[in-house]
Each structure stands twice: as structure tokens, then as C-alpha cells.
Amino acid sequence: MSASTATLPAPVATGTADFATVDTPLGPFTTIVASDGAVLASGWTAVTEELRTVVHPGLRPADLRARRELGAVTDAVIAYHRGDLTAIDPIAVRQRSGEFLQHAWDVLRTVPAGEPITYTAFAARSGRPAATRAAASACARNAAALFVPCHRIVRTDGTLGGFRWGLDIKRRLLDLEA
């Protein structure tokens, strides 16, 4: 994975980050980006504060500045929802946590659209086959929904499991990618 697609190391947080909300077929989608354009948080909400609070405290911006669009990030969101499922792949993401979660988020970015895997398989791909709960935690703590596609992880029996943005959105994302 190239540096442009990997979860980037976390620099010291800055005071202000930009955000933009776009309409998608699944509802409003908001993205918060750092000054260098890396995604700090994203999801199907128009409530920006809901997203700001899921950013790691060491990266969490003190202030948010509304923008009409965020260039390549907004373009990727729109293109993805129109069916270009790889449009999100080159977008840089920045999250912070322990070594396993950092690695697990990078692994999530390698799960291809249309090929969901189980939490057990995700744990194995992340190098800890017995750590299914830790793998599920990586999904639950993922602040950059869509760009780090935790929606592509399902239960062993094929049911959806959890998703911060609701099971209806998770199902619709998987259907779009099928």
C-alpha cells in the first residue's frame, strides 16, 4: 500500500479543520479533513459535532470551518455513491490509536468492494487470528467510515453485525458494492 492510501501517522493536532456535507442516496455525508486534506472523520450525518467527537483527542480539531466542498475528498464521496467503488481508495486518512488498531485500519482498506469478509477473517488478516473481538473493536472505533470501509466486515453467519451509521446504511453499501 502506498503512503497516499495508508492510514497516515498522526502529527500534532491543529486548531482548525475543514468539513463539508454532501447529499448522497444514503443521506447527508459529512467529512472532516486536516489542513493537509487527510480525512479525520466521516459518516452519514449532517451533525458535524457528532463526527468531531469520534476523532482521537490528539487529533481532534478545536474549531471546524464549513466548506462547500473538499476537492478530491468530496469528488471521491460523490463518485463512490454513483458507483465508482474505487474512488475512495487514494484518499489519505489519519487516525490514531494503539499499534493493533492502526494496523487493522490499514488492513480494512485492503478489503475489496464486493468481497465482504467475516470478523474472524479480518482478525486473521490483521495478524491476530484469535482476536476477533479486537478486530470488531477496530471497526467500532473507526472514525473514517467509507474511506476505511468497516462496512465490509460481517458476522460469520453472514449477518451484518454493528455499524455506527445503522444497519440499513451498511446493507445498502454492501448492495451497492455487490
From TrEMBL:
It catalyses: a 6-O-methyl-2'-deoxyguanosine in DNA + L-cysteinyl-[protein] = S-methyl-L-cysteinyl-[protein] + a 2'-deoxyguanosine in DNA; a 4-O-methyl-thymidine in DNA + L-cysteinyl-[protein] = a thymidine in DNA + S-methyl-L-cysteinyl-[protein]. GO terms for biological process: DNA repair; methylation. InterPro entries: MethylDNA_cys_MeTrfase_AS (IPR001497), MethylDNA_cys_MeTrfase_DNA-bd (IPR014048), MethylDNA_cys_MeTrfase_DNAb (IPR036217), WH-like_DNA-bd_sf (IPR036388). This is Methylated-DNA:protein-cysteine methyltransferase. Residues 99-177 form the Methylated-DNA-[protein]-cysteine S-methyltransferase DNA binding domain. It comes from the Bacteria. GO terms for molecular function: methylated-DNA-[protein]-cysteine S-methyltransferase activity. Gene3D superfamilies: Winged helix-like DNA-binding domain superfamily/Winged helix DNA-binding domain (1.10.10.10). SUPFAM superfamilies: Methylated DNA-protein cysteine methyltransferase, C-terminal domain. Keywords: DNA damage, DNA repair, Methyltransferase, Transferase. It comes from Nocardia jinanensis.
